[in-house]
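Bumping with the actual sequence this time:
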Amino acid sequence: MEKELVSVIMPAYNAEKYIYMSIESVMQQTYRNVELIIVDDGSQDSTLEIMRACVEKWPDKIRIFVREQNGGTAAALNDAIEMAQGSYICWLSADDLYNVDMIRSEVAYLQENGQCDAVFSKCAFIDGEGKFLREQVFVVDEADFDEGMRYITHLLLMLNFWHGCTLLAKAECFKKEEKFNTEYKASQDYDFWIRMAADHDIGYLNQINVLSREHSEQGSRKLNCCLDEILVFFNILYREDIMMKLFRKIGKKYTFENVRLYIEYRIAKYKNHEDEMNAIAICLRKYMSMMAIGELHFQE
């Protein structure tokens, strides 16, 4: 089982408080054939010094890349993907933790379920001191793969419902010309997962494999993730090639009536949020204009 190398990619920016624990959680995996690639994204604290100390401790396991200026999570992830040599790739944030069997369990899932190219699992949330907050809750049917894949694709068009650090995939799912979009600062993962789901079958493992940390310093708390998520959704809607693939996965025709469900979901979700509703209105005008001039070709 462990003949396949797994590359863990880790973007890091001013992560001095937590990064050692995150690195250690990778080094303590029961699956031993692992490489960890850490990209320091222009940190201004002691993150880089901690990374270098970890390389000295685990010289055969860790490689680092240093960006002189902060370019954002997407750029750091793309650099790490380029460096990754494994047959499988997974991503761990520099403040989160893997459970010890994270990699072993998900590699085993993919080897036992040959129709899948990627698999995600669940996470639990902890605070800055490591105290348990809550468990992620969602239901995906593991018994019927085809039905589960339809539901996963449907739910993903609704919202970014899985935690990105719980996903492990064949390297080919990451090593594509179109990687993480650096124009997104908060929802670059959502955009990537939707595109991945269009081209690959993704399975679900019903166990907690990641401890996701919530704390006041994390970058996502300083960004409007909802606005970014709205832009991701509509930019996918504008791409007819992707939408057709997604609706084939869902098992429905690519029609405006079927697309409208996902638009109306966001309108209902953000109806009391002025900035988000303004963003939806702008995107929706562009979408309707594309329909009017025949740029979209719905199925009959």
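The tokens above came from a reply further down the thread. The CA atoms of residues 120 and 204 lie 5 Å apart.
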